[in-house]
Amino acid sequence: MSKSKTRSHKTTLTAAGRKEADTKAKKSGKGSKSAKSAAPSTTPVAENRKAKFRYEILDSIECGMMLTGSEVKSMREGKLSLDEAHIRVTSGELWLVGADLAQYSNAGLWNHDPRRPRKLLVHQKEFNKFAGLAFERGLTLIPLRVYFNDRGIAKCVMGLVKGKKLHDKRETIKKRDADRGLQRAIRRG
């Protein structure tokens, strides 16, 4: 037999067959670029919940953190507190001061100091913007939340904030109570 007379063993799909195969691939997430570009996942570690009540948040930015190995493992266990933490500008660098990161139980001799200052990493342009505004206007830099991004890198969201007065805090409480009442009324009927 010659080559022209032999049948090929390849399967050819008709238009309907191709459409069905594409539908199956989309459902399973294979072969589609849009299914691949899903939202990146983050693992939250700690959040400064009192910040929204105590301060008016003007701007925020994500920055990296310089940590030791035992600090990272302790953060993965969720043992970080940002309640009394703030960010200080010292000799052209940002430092996270007052954050309490509990010691890692399995580190032994090589454990870290729980309240040591930790360096924050930002681009020079962003540093100039935030540090300049904080210095000129008398604003404060505080950590809003700390999390691990989809690549497993620790990130801190730093906020440029202005302290609220007592009457502003009262207004916040009134607004929150009114919103809560509205939500209840909507649910009821």
UniProtKB/TrEMBL annotation:
Q: Sorted alphabetically, which CDD domains does this protein's record hold?
A: SmpB
The transmembrane residues are none
Tell me the keywords, alphabetical order.
Answer: Cytoplasm, RNA-binding
The places in or outside the cell where this protein is found are: Cytoplasm
UniProt keyword RNA-binding, yes or no: yes
Ranges for region Disordered:
1-45
Ranges annotated as biased composition (Basic residues):
1-10
The UniProt entry's sequence similarity note says: Belongs to the SmpB family.
In UniProt terms, what function does this protein have? Required for rescue of stalled ribosomes mediated by trans-translation. Binds to transfer-messenger RNA (tmRNA), required for stable association of tmRNA with ribosomes. tmRNA and SmpB together mimic tRNA shape, replacing the anticodon stem-loop with SmpB. tmRNA is encoded by the ssrA gene; the 2 termini fold to resemble tRNA(Ala) and it encodes a 'tag peptide', a short internal open reading frame. During trans-translation Ala-aminoacylated tmRNA acts like a tRNA, entering the A-site of stalled ribosomes, displacing the stalled mRNA.
Name of the featured protein: SsrA-binding protein
Organism in which the protein naturally occurs = Aporhodopirellula aestuarii
Top-level taxonomy: Bacteria, Pseudomonadati, Planctomycetota, Planctomycetia, Pirellulales
